[in-house]
Design goal:
The chain has helices at residues 3-6, 50-58, 86-96, 107-120, 133-144, 168-175, 183-197, 206-219, 225-238, 265-274, 295-313, and strands spanning 15-17, 23-29, 34-38, 62-66, 126-131, 149-155, 252-257, 279-283. By secondary structure, the chain is of the alpha/beta class. The radius of gyration is 19 Å and the shape is globular.
């Protein structure tokens, strides 16, 4: 796999100063119905592979991807203070359901960031696609701003139930270990992480992951474990959405790997069961990543869903009565 398949070496991308006072770094590519891609915890917009984004563009979509607050080139909120270790936050969330956990913001605030980016771009709405924590943010966006979400795609995510946590080995790989001190260490850490949480049914693209980890480290300006922990605190304190998901009316598609060790497929099934009319598609051999072999199938599913939602929302021509 070439680096270009993962992320083009292009910096100086636009930044939008949004209503919350935060600046979001984003990329805007293609033409057609807008699709807003939301990434997971600690991940940047470059973690959406370029070839995957190109596939969406080729299917007639305008694709927006952005760095969430506290990661990449978007605003870092270090002035809000250093949170506890992300592992402690997760354990506290399990024991106390998030009560008493210090958090400077929640998933709803991160969802507002995405809607504010649409405002900055003059877009009344978008098809929102979120992966992992990004799926949680996409669900929160749909709940809090239903008129702005034309359709929802929740990938390898869940409704926030405690029972949907994954295997201990996968959680440890995500939460443990010292922060990388160099780009090379960051590349090796990303490889180790996806050995634990990636897709057992597909090859692990180690060289591409090393290059991606190095670039992510450099875009972050070095290790940003505080931002990671603040995002974990947002997940823990936001609690479950299982009582709210049945109120979603946006056309919804749930995509999940059948071999996801971090957020098990039962979480995707629960999400689809809770949202009225939601469609579920699972992929054998897929873990908690986007394996290259599935990019065409995933792009097809997302594009077909977005275009179908557009057709459903399009005004029908008025019938003219015969004279």
């Amino acid at each position: 796999m070439t680096m270009g398949e993962w992320s083009r070496t292009v910096e100086g991308m636009p930044r939008a100063r949004i209503s919350t006072g935060i600046e979001l770094d984003y990329e805007d590519q293609g033409a057609g119905p807008p699709v807003l891609l939301v990434m997971g915890i600690g991940a940047q917009w470059i973690h959406w592979p370029d070839a995957f984004v190109d596939a969406l563009v080729a299917r007639g979509l305008r694709v927006l991807r952005y760095d969430n607050r506290d990661v990449g080139h978007s605003t870092s909120l270090d002035h809000l203070g250093r949170p506890p270790h992300a592992g402690w936050l997760l354990l506290r969330g399990l024991v106390r359901r998030g009560r008493g956990v210090p958090s400077p913001y929640r998933l709803d605030d991160m969802a507002t960031d995405g809607v504010a980016l649409l405002d900055a771009l003059g877009l009344p709405g978008a098809h929102v696609v979120g992966a992992s924590m990004g799926g949680m943010i996409a669900q929160a966006m749909t709940l809090a701003h239903p008129t702005r979400v034309r359709s929802l795609v929740s990938i390898m995510s869940g409704p926030g139930r405690r029972r949907d946590l994954g295997r201990p080995k996968a959680l440890l790989a995500l939460l443990s270990g010292p922060a990388p001190r160099t780009p090379e260490e960051a590349g090796e850490r990303l490889v180790r992480l996806f050995r634990a949480i990636g897709s057992p049914g597909f090859p692990l693209e180690e060289e591409g992951l090393r290059a991606l980890g190095r670039r992510a480290f450099e875009r972050d300006g070095g290790p940003n474990r505080d931002g990671f922990a603040r995002q974990m605190a947002a997940i823990v304190t936001s609690g479950t959405r299982r009582h709210l998901l049945p109120t979603i009316t946006a056309p919804t598609l749930v995509l999940h790997g059948e071999d996801d060790p971090l957020i098990p497929v039962r979480a995707g099934r629960a999400t689809a069961a809770l949202i009225p009319g939601a469609r579920l598609r699972t992929f054998p051999g897929m873990g908690h990543d986007l394996p290259r072999a599935l990019w065409p199938a995933l792009a097809d599913a997302i594009a077909e869903h977005a275009h179908a939602a557009e057709a459903l929302a399009a005004p029908r021509p008025a019938l003219v009565a015969a004279g």
